[in-house]
């Protein structure tokens, strides 16, 4: 096979109405946070996910920060966070002044071990000690986490659930209490990211979804500098300049129009990786029987991920190890940990392969061949 040009890990695909909608912004002069595409993006995103309310934000991290604050994260409070995730998940919780519990993964889906967290909360509550008032659960790499133990904690203790669905737009559950729901819509609030490498992009940006109109109103208030209605510059609390621009929303709206096709492409790419890499003895991306993952960033487990990343790089392929667990990160090394062996083990072995929605069969064939060749040789 002829070597292709360099194959990126995951880049945006902009083949829809993005240019036309941005031109509308330019022509109308609505390029900042006031403009019709912001509300249109919110309404269409809420409809697509099956949520009642959506609030557009400047970034996925901004969405998480506001959602956590609305959920009750505060100084003196406690937020339980998945330890195997990008650091923005923990940073957003830290912005609120809350203390963190870092929760280990479970091996089946690589997500937060929500059953382990439930056991820890119940045990801690019996001892009369402080328990989390918010859980921030991450749907890692596009695979839904098991939320049923968290629903039990919400019923027992009133713990609110914030879903970090930054990587999982389009994923859903197919069994149990969450059957038929899109990620982000089961917890009290759900958050999404539209960074350039996500399933859809707005160039940057995020979204909060919630079924509760009061929570949505509170989130919208905080993202707009907590400015009071009625004219004038009166503010009733500390808010944030977290609004999405009309230009970003225009791009996001165009991307959302093609979301189904992008997800279908992700599934085709993942199925091909599954088929060829499993036969080479690779431990492939998780897919639980009760879930319909979005297959955002196809990731595998190998014995020596550094060697494979370096070999693929020499072959013109961008691959990337997954993030070090948060308990290994300097800002969170002293945080309370609930388990850690599974996330540490996953970090030692996991890496992600090219997963752009427009990845061609020829380019993917090159990735598969180079991956299997390196593993077989090593």
Written description of the protein model:
The chain is an alpha/beta fold. The protein is built from 12 helices and 13 strands. The protein has helices at residues 18-28, 36-49, 60-71, 88-95, 114-126, 148-157, 213-223, 246-257, 259-278, 305-314, 341-349, 361-377, and strands at 53-57, 78-82, 99-103, 134-138, 160-164, 172-173, 189-193, 206-210, 291-292, 299-301, 320-321, 336-338, 350-352. Strands 1-8-7-5-4-2-3-12 form an 8-stranded mixed beta sheet, sandwiched between helices. A 3-stranded antiparallel beta sheet has the order 10-13-11. Strands 6-9 form a two-stranded antiparallel sheet. Helix 4 links the parallel strand 2 (78-82) and strand 3. Helix 3 (60-71) crosses helix 4 (88-95). It is globular. The two termini are 21 Å apart. The model has no long low-confidence stretch (mean pLDDT 96).
Would you count the extended β strands for me? Answer: 13
Distance between the termini: 21 Å
Beta-strand proportion: 5-15%
Choose one word for the global shape.
Answer: globular
Please report the number of helical segments.
12
Low-pLDDT residue spans: none
In the sheet with the most strands, the strands line up as: 1-8-7-5-4-2-3-12
Quaternary structure state of the chains depicted: single chain
Give the helix/strand class.
Answer: alpha/beta
| Helix fraction by DSSP (H/I, runs of at least 4) | 25-40%
List the secondary-structure elements in sequence, H or E. HHEHEHEHEHEEEEHHHEEHEEHEH
Mean pLDDT: 96
């Amino acid at each position: 096979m002829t070597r292709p040009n360099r194959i990126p890990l995951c880049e945006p695909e902009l083949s829809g109405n993005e240019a036309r909608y941005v031109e509308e912004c330019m022509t109308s002069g609505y390029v900042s946070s006031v403009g019709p595409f912001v509300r249109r993006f919110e309404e269409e995103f809420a409809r697509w996910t099956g949520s009642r309310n959506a609030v557009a934000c400047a970034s996925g991290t901004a969405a998480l920060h506001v959602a956590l604050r609305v959920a009750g994260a505060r100084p003196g409070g406690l937020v339980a966070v998945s330890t195997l995730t990008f650091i923005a998940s923990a940073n957003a919780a830290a912005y609120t002044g809350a203390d963190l519990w870092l929760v280990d993964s479970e091996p089946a889906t690589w997500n937060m071990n929500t059953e382990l967290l439930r056991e820890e909360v119940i045990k801690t509550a019996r001892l009369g000690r402080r328990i989390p008032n918010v859980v921030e659960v991450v749907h890692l790499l596009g695979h839904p986490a098991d939320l049923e133990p968290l629903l039990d904690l919400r019923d027992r203790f009133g713990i609110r659930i914030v879903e970090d669905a930054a990587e999982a737009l389009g994923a859903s559950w197919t069994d149990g209490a969450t059957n038929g729901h899109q990620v982000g819509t089961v917890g009290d609030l759900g958050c999404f990211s539209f960074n350039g490498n996500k399933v859809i992009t707005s160039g940057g940006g995020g979204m909060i979804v919630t079924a509760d109109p009061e929570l949505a109103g509170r989130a919208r208030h905080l993202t707009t500098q907590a400015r009071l209605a009625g004219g004038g510059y009166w503010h009733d609390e500390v808010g944030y300049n977290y609004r999405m621009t009309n230009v970003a929303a225009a791009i996001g709206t165009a991307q959302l129009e093609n979301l189904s096709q992008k997800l279908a492409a992700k599934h085709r790419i993942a199925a091909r990786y599954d088929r060829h890499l499993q036969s080479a003895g690779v431990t492939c991306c998780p897919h639980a029987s009760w879930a319909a993952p979005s297959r955002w960033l196809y990731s595998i487990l190998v014995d020596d991920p550094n060697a494979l990343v370096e070999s693929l790089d020499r072959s013109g392929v961008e691959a990337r190890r997954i993030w070090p667990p948060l308990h290994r990160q300097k800002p969170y090394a002293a945080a309370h940990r609930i388990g850690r062996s599974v996330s540490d083990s996953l970090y030692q072995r996991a890496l992600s392969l090219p997963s752009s929605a427009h990845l061609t069969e020829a380019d993917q064939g090159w990735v598969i061949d180079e991956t299997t060749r390196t593993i077989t040789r090593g």
